[in-house]
From TrEMBL:
GO terms for biological process: bacterial-type flagellum assembly. Residues 155-174 are annotated as: Disordered. Required for the efficient initiation of filament assembly. Belongs to the FlgN family. This is FlgN protein. Residues 101-128 form a coiled coil. Gene3D superfamilies: FlgN-like (1.20.58.300). It comes from the Bacteria. Pfam families: FlgN (PF05130). Keywords: Bacterial flagellum biogenesis, Coiled coil. InterPro entries: FlgN-like, FlgN-like_sf.
């Protein structure tokens, strides 16, 4: 069976683009961590927006790669759910697609390693953000405890009121 060279090339280019995008995503995660360490909220927000855009682009590339993979599987008469290893073995069985299959095997290994690294960086960022949120909540609770009125006094009418006017430490409106 003759597999179009341009289809294999597009599949390779899609994986290469995905690898490049994963590298950018890792950099964006690192930028968020740096902004968090430096307490630069605007930089953190900007890096988070960049991350969101990169994730959207990455999802599109993954869909494109999956589509090309399904098309290759159909052309090789494999099950659409056949694992990548089976696809690569089928490509290697055809002499005209062996070089592309070898390149795809190397790219697949690089992709798996990059995905592992990116997941680790994402988990580090997730932990840091959750920790920062927890610290912020604890500080707010502490400030609210400081805001409690010290005592109450009786008014001439027999009612009780706060001994001194309440001064909020936390802006409750915004």
């Amino acid at each position: 069976m003759n597999i179009p060279h341009n289809l294999l090339q597009q599949f390779i280019e899609t994986i290469e683009a995905e690898l490049q995008l994963l590298g950018q995503l890792e950099q964006s995660f690192e930028a968020q961590l740096d902004a968090l360490r430096r307490h630069e909220h605007e930089a953190l927000e900007q890096a988070a927006m960049t991350t969101s855009e990169l994730v959207t682009r990455l999802e599109r590339l993954q869909q494109k790669r999956a589509g090309k993979g399904r098309l290759l599987r159909r052309m090789l008469r494999l099950e659409l759910s056949a694992p990548t290893e089976q696809l690569l073995a089928a490509l290697e069985a055809h002499p005209e697609s062996r070089p592309a299959a070898h390149a795809l095997r190397q790219l697949q290994q690089k992709l798996q390693e990059r995905l592992r690294q990116t997941r680790q960086r994402c988990e580090t960022l997730e932990f840091s953000l959750k920790y920062a949120i927890q610290i912020g909540q604890e500080l707010l609770e502490l400030l609210q405890l400081l805001d409690q009125p010290a005592s109450r006094v009786y008014t001439p009418t027999g009612q009780t009121r706060q001994a001194c006017p309440q001064r909020s430490v936390v802006n409750r409106l915004g």
